[in-house]
Amino acid sequence: MKMIKPAFLGTLMVPAFMFAAGANAQSDNAAEPNAQSDNSATMQHSNDMDATYLTSAPQDSFHADALTGNAVLSAVEEDEEIGTINDLIIDMDGQIQAVVVGVGGFLGMGEKDVAIEWDSLDLTMDEDNDDYVIRVNATQEALEEAEGYERDGNTEEMNNDGMNSDTGMENDAGMENDADMTDEEMDTNS
Fold this sequence. Notes:
The chain is an alpha+beta fold. It has helices spanning 4-50, 140-145, 153-159, 183-189; strands at 71-74, 80-90, 96-103, 112-117, 121-125, 132-136.
């Protein structure tokens, strides 16, 4: 029995020494990362200057999808629905210049896009403060008679990473961009 007691105490002491050695090693390593953390903090700081991040939308701002798909109402015709917002035109400063509204047609067929300047719209919240109500001082007939909006080369260049789809440039596979081809050309190429 006397032999078991020292063996038992020795067994208990091994983990205690291991624990103490591990704690000592951690404290030695803790001094080195402080020097590195200064560099890391500096590196992180320089990265923070490259990009900033938001955790939520700033006050008095909204997401693009809060507008796209929404109906546009006529302020002239007792809030009659005259179109749907299909797209936003945003300048290089990030300001909305116009909304592209789909007007006319039936179930999306025969619809044409008309760009309405942002300043021409009246944007308010509905009674529940859930959705935007968008009004314009125009009739549906006036929008249907307005000149249709066509994307120009500048917006296409930005959408295609600098490649203008109007140039007929071929893609990596040697095929023309399908967006530039008529239905007949697509049938002959397939």
